[in-house]
Structure formats: C-alpha cells, structure tokens
Amino acid sequence: MAKYSSKINKIRTFALSLIFVGFIVMYIGIFFRESPVLMTFFMLLGTIFIVASTGVYFWIGLLSTKAVQVVCPSCGKYTKVLGRVDMCMYCKEPLTLDKTLEGKEFDEKYNRKSQQNSAN
Ligand SMILES: [Zn+2]
User: Which ranges form a coiled coil (predicted)?
Assistant: First the structure.
C-alpha cells in the first residue's frame, strides 16, 4: 500500500465513499419503515450525502482545471500536479513543480500552508 496517493485521486475516493455512506444511510432507513418520520429522516440524510458527493465531484472538476498537467518522467503518461508536490496518478512517482525540492524525498508536508506562505 502506498503511503501517499495523488490528491485528485484522494478526493475522488472521498466522493465515492460519500455516495457509499449515503446509500448505507438510506438502507438503514428501510429498517424504520414502520415509522414514516424516521424513514424520511434517513432518506433525506442519505440524499444529503449523495448531494454532497456531487458537490465534491464538482470541486474535483474545478481543481483539475487549476492543476498543472505534466508528463510523468517515470511512466510517460499525462498526469496532473496539484500544489507544490503531488504524485503521478498512474505510477505514484513523486512529482514537484518546485526546483528547490527536486531530488528531495517526497513529503506531503511541503504542501502545508506555512510552507506555501513562506514560498509565496
Ligand atoms: Zn507516472
């Protein structure tokens, strides 16, 4: 298991789990079909999760337009870099847009706000 994954992939996994949770919550609602109030509550809650995941997917779309498209030096495929350091979506090759970080060991802390502020 890779310790890190590309950010866009991470958010995508999050959106997918939101849909999953939404369906589970709706499924729980079926057990309360004796009580229309509880069932409606769970159905609405499930719908909220699914709507939220749609929002996250929309957010991924926005992020993708901001991400820089690069050719991965390792596998030669087009991938997107978000922030200062990110990972190839296909082969998990660490990539950086910052020349000063080149050759350094991949560390997600380079993306933290304090680091970004000192750079900007
Ligand atoms: Zn790659």
Answer: none
Shared-domain flag, residues 24 and 59 = yes
Confidence of residue 13 (pLDDT cuts 50, 70, 90): very high
Tokens matching residue 109: 């802390």
Same domain as 25, residue 12: yes
- d(CA 32, ligand 1 centre) in Å: 48
What spacing in Å lies between the alpha carbon of 56 and ligand 1's midpoint?
Answer: 25
Q: Is position 115 within any domain?
A: yes
Q: Please check whether residue 114 lies inside any domain of the structure.
A: yes
Helices (H) and strands (E) in the chain, counts: 3, 4
Instruction: Measure 73 CA to ligand 1 centroid, in angstroms.
Output: 7
Dist. CA 71 → ligand 1 center (Å): 8
pTM to 2 decimal places:
0.65
What pLDDT does 55 receive? Answer: 95
Instruction: Please state the three-class secondary structure of 86-108 as a single string.
Output: EECCCCCCEEECCHHHCCCCCCH
d(CA 95, ligand 1 centre) in Å: 9
